[in-house]
Amino acid sequence: MEGGNAIFPHPYNEKMCGIVGYVGNKQVVPLIIEGLRRLEYRGYDSAGIAVGGSGRTLELRRAPGKLRNLEDVIRENPLHGTYGIGHTRWATHGRPTEENAHPHRDCTGRLVVVHNGIVENYLALKHELAAEGHKFVTETDTEIIAHLIEQELSSAAGSGKTMPLEEAVRRAVRQLTGAYAIGVISAQRTARRDRTG
User: Fold this and answer.
1) Residue 54 gets which letter from DSSP?
2) Is it true that the peptide bond before 103 is cis, omega within 30 degrees of 0?
3) Distances in whole angstroms, Cα of residue 117 to Cα of each of 4, 35, 90, 170, 178
4) What span, in angstroms and rounded, lies between the C-alpha atoms of 78 and 60?
5) What is the pLDDT of residues 72-91, one digit of tens each?
6) Signed CA dihedral, 126, 128, 129, 132: sign only
7) What's the predicted TM-score (pTM) here?
8) Which candidate, 105, 22, 32, places its Cα nearest to that of 70?
9) Using CB atoms within 10 A of its CB, is residue 173 exposed (0-12), middle (13-18) or buried (19+)?
10) Which helix (H) or strand (E) holds 85?
11) Distance of alpha carbon 8 from alpha carbon 6, whole angstroms
12) Which of 89, 108, 85 is nearest to 99 (CA)?
């Protein structure tokens, strides 16, 4: 503190992403869209949603630009489910395009991630994962998080073990450098309603 004022190394930036999630019995799309509408001021380069609960897969819809563009995409190609995550983006890595809009999938397509913040070591991690056979389709730092979680689950399965999704997320996050918040859902794991540390 200098002169009674706190000094913050990373000043507050209103240009950050918005993340919304829901797990329950209601149809999730209207709930997430309303949540994104309330957070749209946090990001408006692109928006996206991932939804599960109507089968064994996750469905994604994404659009560049404002939230209304995503709403148009959903009107043209509806999706239904009882759990999901949504995201409004303020681009830091990668152009504001449909491909770079969140959520991002792993190689299997059964796991998706949304992210707010910056993963500082994403290029090194991306090179390591690519060497392991992971295929990347975006310019973002976020996509590597989905692949790291996939790698943790795969490694456990290769050893004949089953790893809970929460543990795979914890292990993946330990490899990240930066400041961030993430949301993760999987088509193969039931969502937990309790908070884990």
Assistant:
1) S
2) yes
3) 29, 19, 10, 17, 8
4) 10
5) 999 999 999 999 999 886 66
6) positive
7) 0.82
8) 32
9) middle
10) strand 83-89
11) 6
12) 89
CB 166 within 8 Å of CB 195: no
> With bands split at pLDDT 50, 70 and 90, how would you rate the model's confidence at 43?
low
The answer to whether the CB of 166 falls within 8 A of the CB of 196 is yes
Distance CA 159, CA 11 (A): 44
Q: List alpha helices for the chain, DSSP H.
A: 28-39, 67-76, 122-131, 143-158, 165-173
- 35 by DSSP, 3-state: which? helix
Q: Give the position of tokens 């995201």.
A: 87
Burial annotation 133-156 (CB, 10 A radius, 16+ → b, else e): ebeeebebbbbbbbbbbbbbbbeb
Q: Per DSSP, what are the bridge partners of residue 135?
A: none
CA neighbours closer than 13 Å in the CB half-sphere of residue 166: 8
DSSP lists the bridge partners of residue 52 as 83
